[in-house]
Design goal:
It is a single chain. It is built from 15 helices and twelve strands. The chain is of the alpha+beta class and 455 residues long. The protein folds into four domains: 2-194, BirA Bifunctional Protein, domain 2 (2-Layer Sandwich), CATH 3.30.930; 205-259, no CATH class; 264-380, no CATH class; 388-440, no CATH class. Strands 1-3-5-4-2 form a five-stranded antiparallel sheet, with helices on both faces. Helix 4 packs across helix 5 (172-185).
């Protein structure tokens, strides 16, 4: 579990962001997971706000306002040397904000699991004295997966308590210790204690720079419609570094955040890691990688040709090729992804036997020849073997189709419904999900009768 801590003084703005669309429209199903008793009346039973963000902020600030009227420092700076608030600025950093996330490859938790984790975490941090403590104000909001696919929850705490101030300075090490304790004691987090393969993915600054420049160029042309070369060198560099100046020289805004985690190499690593974890055998891994749109080519032991290729032990590594829909091509060898992605390491977690080895050879040969998979109905196409990643892809497809139908003009609805049916058929063919309602119930499109004829 990964904590990320910030501080501020505008709870209303934070809640507005958490219940809004997000920076990349990634926020979905925004709702309260748990909160202190004094904040529950601000939300309905489904966790949606029943009051304005400003009203929520005022209720959240009541303990702070009470201490302010009593003339107590708000909040005291207990950091070494008083470096965070040396002048005693009133109300500075009184809102403690922490996001807790789990890696994308390790699945999604339920609201009940997150509630238990949040209360346990705040108790271990010394912010509350247990789930029944009503001396502090706090909320925990969840809004689906992050842009990188991580399940996470946001926690906001008012540092003013009935009995004084919570000392949240120098809290990064205690936060890490609290996460490690949770992973050891909570069964739902047990597998997260393993080192992630993504942690081993290396890259050089020059590789990031090349990717960032390409992405900035593509985004600029896509959004502005003007040539990249029309910008001078400083403007191009500013775009690449993800900063741009507002008309007012006193304000700057981030417009094109090109983080290292957006690199194609990281995207490839996330997909390969998810496929490796979900697979039981080597042939299943190859099929899962290929159905994600990646090309996987084996490295055969020196002196081994296609005719002599009879055993997966003759495969010493692999290369992944990813081609994006907007023109970027990325190729990665095993050493480019890191030790955690080596075939020798991955094979330690797969089932082996004469049957599995024979199937692995067939799938490697199919991949080398760019032919369809040798086995059409493998274990990965069974409903019980669908991974969290598979379900996320299908849910995302359904969500996008629903949004298109919601915003469509009546004249375009027929075409959008047909596109949706084709998209679901592709999903079913790719993931092998059970037959949908499309197969067992007739669908009447606008302007047709029950037989599908135009009226």
């Amino acid at each position: 579990m990964i904590p990320n801590i910030t501080r501020g003084s505008n709870l209303a703005g934070l809640v507005r962001y958490l219940f809004g669309p997000g920076r990349k429209n990634e926020h979905r199903d925004q709702h309260l997971v748990c909160a202190s008793g004094d904040m529950l009346d601000m939300f309905d039973l489904s966790g949606r706000p029943t009051a304005t963000y400003e009203q929520i902020g005022r209720v959240f600030d009541r303990r702070y306002q009470r201490q302010r009227h009593e003339g107590r420092p708000c909040p005291p700076d207990r950091s070494p040397g008083g470096k965070y608030n040396p002048e005693g600025e009133d109300g500075k950093d009184r809102v403690w904000h922490c996001s807790l996330s789990i890696p994308a490859a390790h699945g999604v938790l339920s609201d009940a699991q997150w509630e238990k984790i949040v209360t346990d975490y705040l108790t271990r941090m010394g912010i509350i004295d247990g789930p029944d403590d009503e001396t502090a104000s706090w909320i925990a909001v969840r809004h689906g997966l992050s842009a990188n696919g991580n399940d996470h929850v946001h926690i906001a705490v008012q540092l003013a308590r009935d009995d004084g101030w919570i000392n949240a300075y120098e809290d990064y090490k205690p936060a890490q210790r609290a996460c490690r304790h949770l992973e050891k004691t909570d069964a739902s987090l047990e597998q997260i204690t393993r080192r992630r393969q993504l942690d081993d993915v290396p890259y050089q600054w020059s590789q990031w720079r090349r990717w960032a420049e390409w992405k900035a160029r593509y985004d600029w042309i896509e959004e502005q419609g003007t040539p990249w070369d029309d910008l001078d060198g400083d403007e191009r560099d500013r775009m690449i570094r993800a900063w741009d100046a507002q008309p007012s020289p006193m304000r700057r805004r981030r417009i094109n955040h090109i983080a290292a985690t957006t690199m194609p190499r990281m995207h490839i690593a996330r997909l390969v890691e998810a496929c490796a974890i979900a697979s039981d055998t080597e042939d299943e891994f190859i099929r899962r990688v290929r159905r994600e749109g990646l090309q996987i080519d084996p490295f055969l032991r020196k002196g081994t040709n296609t005719d002599a290729f009879q055993s997966p032990t003759q495969v010493t590594g692999y290369r992944i090729t990813w081609r994006s829909s907007n023109g970027w091509t990325e190729r990665c060898n095993t050493k480019d992804l890191g030790d955690g992605f080596r075939l020798k390491t991955l094979r330690e977690h797969w089932r082996h036997g004469p049957h599995e080895d024979a199937l692995a050879v067939l799938e490697w040969k199919a991949a080398m020849a760019n032919m369809p998979p040798a086995i059409h109905d493998g274990a990965e196409r069974r409903a019980e073997n669908l991974s969290t990643h598979d379900l996320e892809r299908m849910i995302d497809t359904a969500f996008r189709q629903a949004m298109r139908m919601r915003d469509a003009d009546p004249d375009d609805l027929r075409g959008i419904i047909l596109d949706g049916i084709r998209a679901f058929d592709r999903m079913r063919d790719r993931y092998g999900v059970p037959p949908s309602i499309i197969d067992v119930a007739p669908i009447r499109l606008p302007g047709t009768d029950t037989e599908g004829r135009k009226t």
